[in-house]
Design goal:
Layout (H helix, E strand, L loop, with lengths): L2 H21 L15 H4 L3 E2 L7 E2 L7 E5 H6 L5 H5 L5 E4 L8 E4 L11 E5 L2 E2 L10 H6 L5 E8 L3 H4 L6 E7 L7 E7 L3 E11 L3 E12 L3 E5 L5 E5 L2 E12 L2 E13 L15 E17 L2 E17 L6 E19 L2 E17 L9 E20 L4 E12 L5 E11 L4 E12 L3 H5 L1 E2 L3 E2 L7 E13 L3 E13 L2 E4 L6 E5 L3 E12 L6 E14 L13 E11 L3 E11 L17 E11 L4 E8 L7 E3 L8 E3 L6 E9 L1
Parallel strand pairs: 6-9, 26-30
Antiparallel strand pairs: 1-2, 3-8, 4-5, 6-7, 8-9, 10-11, 10-39, 11-12, 12-15, 13-14, 15-16, 16-17, 17-18, 18-19, 19-20, 20-21, 21-22, 22-23, 23-24, 24-27, 25-26, 27-28, 28-31, 29-30, 31-32, 32-33, 33-34, 34-35, 35-36, 36-39, 37-38
InterPro entries: Beta-barrel_TonB, Beta-barrel_TonB_sf, Plug_dom, Plug_dom_sf, TonB-dep_rcpt-like
Pfam families: Plug, TonB_dep_Rec_b-barrel
Main location: membrane
Length: 655
């Protein structure tokens, strides 16, 4: 499908969404109020990600953050990556081939694939094993309207979720049942078009909800120099379409996601003569999950069947486009029981079956296999026990055994303790391990002159210590966290100028740092202030720097939400990045990664209970952002996806 045909298709879909919203029946829908809960109540918000069961944020082990749908709306996030960057310690990154494909958490950034942060939807993994983490479509196209909250674990999560839950876990929690029906339409600079629809229906025992989101950005030019020091201009235009369907009947729930992104990119290699203005990537992810919960043996049995489908199509261009296809199935079963009023026991098993291939389609030119056709299976067995030692102290201990056809077995463990005083103070401490199995691409890719795989790769492992001290009262919340991680056998892609790259187990890397976050909301006011500061250092054997991952040493975030009168609401969010470290020995052809400040403003006017208008200004300071080139590490920097200031004007209609 050509870019022109795709644009026509998406525009027709946008017209259809507006038509569906127009014919729906109208009903009252109150505007979102981000000031409903005090911070004491916010700490009692129930989360499920940390231990696969409902518990309050203060009781959950580990360091967690929650981004609510009220925050997403107030700050005007238009994509999942923008919503996640509201959380402490998270930075969206990209490369010349995958604009905005990865999440760097606490300064960890392994490469161009999102292999160290596992994404979940309602607790079920959105995981693909061929590349290990092609999440471009998810981060840009996931429909935001149906999200209830984003639950984020900063630190390992393998004991609960297995491979890829290495430096963090993101759980996208959607609203069960039918939410507020609405239509959103917007136009903006650079050819921006945005349409979203949320439509639900229900009966006595069943319900269904559909969320659709379309976003087009047709003019997004970036200028850079390639590895031969030649200037070039690329249009990183993007078209994103996301459809999320959920349905429930009694104890059963079905969920389906289709996410598609088309984007310009910088080619297989950042060498201008090897690509043209037609270089494009189409990334498609399909995900479905069927879940149920049943009472069994005085406990609760949870069953889930999950499918992850990935299709990537790269036009570089060249004699042949390249494709990557993967189909991953997972069967999840876990059982929880309260052994007594103070003790909860969990036992579970996951069985995963993976298959895929990667090849060119121009048979007349010869069939090119990039990643050999494969079939692979993985098994995971886990158990956890949670004990409420006293009214103030809770303890958790867990284990997970991971086995795979390709690679050795690995045992991950975690222990944690939470202590909560009655005067608002809370202390957490946790030790947790995680692992990440090599992807099929890392083991088997064959692209002579570009990159070769290594079938002798060992799994990556990490062990992390976390400690957090927090305080909250009715109008104030503050938390200080410290962390230390020891990574071993990290898999990296190594190359030298003019040579074929390969994957290898690099060795050790050590991360240490602190996170400080706070929120202030004066009682009986219509204002909220939020802040977060993350400082990290990471060192690796053989690299003479305390920032070996090249990610920023300082990541500062400030947010301000203010309601003005009865109708206006203003949201301002700032992200300041400094302390980048360019790859050692990289060619200094592009601008350095100087400190960067991005500022976003979102103004909403509530005309009545059904209708509101909004203005969104992204990159208000009009700053260019350059990030380290982390894939080949030959060039010093690469431009981030969005460079120019963007203005968007939109309308929301609740019906």
């Amino acid at each position: 499908m050509t870019l022109r045909h795709s644009q026509l298709l998406y525009r027709r879909i946008g017209v259809l969404l507006l038509f569906l919203g127009h014919i729906a029946h109208a009903q009252d829908a109150a505007p979102v109020d981000p000031f409903t809960l005090s911070f004491e109540e916010l700490l009692d918000i129930e989360v499920v990600t940390s231990s696969r069961r409902l518990q309050t944020l203060s009781q959950a082990p580990g360091v967690l953050s929650v981004i609510s749908r009220e925050q997403i709306k107030a700050y005007g996030a238009s994509s999942l990556i923008e919503a996640l960057e509201l959380a402490p310690g998270i930075l969206g990154t990209g490369t010349y081939m995958f604009p905005v494909n990865s999440l760097s958490m606490r300064g960890d950034q392994p490469g161009q694939y999102n292999t160290h942060v596992l994404l979940l939807i309602n607790g079920q993994p959105v995981r693909e094993t061929q590349n290990g983490g092609t999440d471009l479509a998810l981060l840009r196209a996931f429909p935001l309207k149906g999200i209830k909250q984003l639950e984020i674990i900063r630190g390992p999560g393998s004991v609960q979720y297995g491979t890829n839950a290495f430096s963090g876990v993101v759980n996208i929690v959607t609203e069960p049942g039918v939410g507020s029906n609405s239509v959103t339409a917007a136009l903006g600079s650079s050819g921006r078009q945005f349409v979203a629809l949320n439509q639900g229906m229900e009966s006595d025992s069943a319900w269904a909800n559909i969320n659709l989101q379309y976003f087009n950005d047709s003019h997004n030019n970036v200028n850079a120099r390639d590895e031969h020091n030649r200037p070039f201009t690329r249009n990183f235009a993007q078209q994103n379409l996301g459809i999320h369907l959920t349905a429930g009947w009694k104890e059963w729930q079905f969920s389906y996601l289709y996410a598609d992104t088309q984007s310009g990119h910088g080619g297989t290699l950042p060498i201008a003569e090897l690509f043209s203005e037609e270089a494009q990537i189409t990334a498609t992810r399909q995900w479905l999950s069927l879940t149920t919960q049943q009472n069994l043996w005085q406990g609760q049995l949870s069953l889930a069947l999950t499918y992850n489908g990935m299709h990537n199509h790269y036009t570089n261009p060249g004699p042949q486009p390249s494709y990557m296809d993967a189909d991953d199935w997972q069967w999840d079963m876990h059982w929880q029981r309260s052994l007594n009023p103070d003790t909860t026991f969990t036992l579970g098993v996951e069985l995963q079956r993976n298959q895929g291939d990667s090849a060119g389609d121009h048979v007349m030119e010869g069939h090119i296999t990039i990643v050999p056709e494969y079939q692979d299976s993985q098994q995971r067995f886990f158990t956890e026990i949670a004990y409420q030692f006293s009214q103030n102290l809770s303890l958790v201990a867990g284990l997970q055994l991971n086995r795979a056809d390709h690679g050795s077995s690995h045992l991950s463990s975690r222990v944690s303790a939470n202590y909560q005083w009655h005067n608002g103070w809370l202390a957490k401490i946790q030790y947790a391990e995680a692992y990440r199995a090599p992807s099929m691409l890392e083991q088997g890719i064959t692209l002579p002159g570009v990159v070769l795989g290594n079938d002798a790769l060992k799994p990556e492992t990490v062990d992390t210590w976390d400690a957090q001290l927090a305080y909250s009262d009715a109008d104030f919340y503050s938390a200080l966290s410290v962390f230390y991680s020891h990574n071993q056998d990290l898999i990296i892609r190594r190359t030298q100028p003019g040579q074929t790259a390969s994957y290898t187990n690099f060795g050790e890397q050590r991360f240490k740092g602190l996170e400080w976050e706070g929120r202030w909301q004066p009682l009986d006011s219509n204002m909220r202030l939020e802040m977060a500061w993350t400082y990290q250092q990471n060192q690796a054997n053989g690299i003479n720097t305390d920032n070996a991952s090249s990610m920023p040493r300082h990541l500062v975030k400030l947010g301000w939400i203010q309601t003005l009168g009865q109708s206006f609401q203003l949201g301002l969010h700032m992200q300041h990045i400094r302390g980048w470290q360019n790859p050692s020995g990289a060619l200094p052809y592009n601008p350095l990664t100087n400190p960067h400040t991005s500022l976003k403003a979102h103004l909403n006017y509530q005309f009545n209970r059904q209708l509101s208008f909004w203005l969104d200004i992204t990159n208000l300071l009009d700053q260019n952002r350059w990030q380290p080139e982390i894939t080949r590490r030959v060039l010093n920097t690469w431009p981030y996806l969005e460079q120019q200031r963007q203005l968007t004007l939109g309308i929301d209609w609740h019906f």
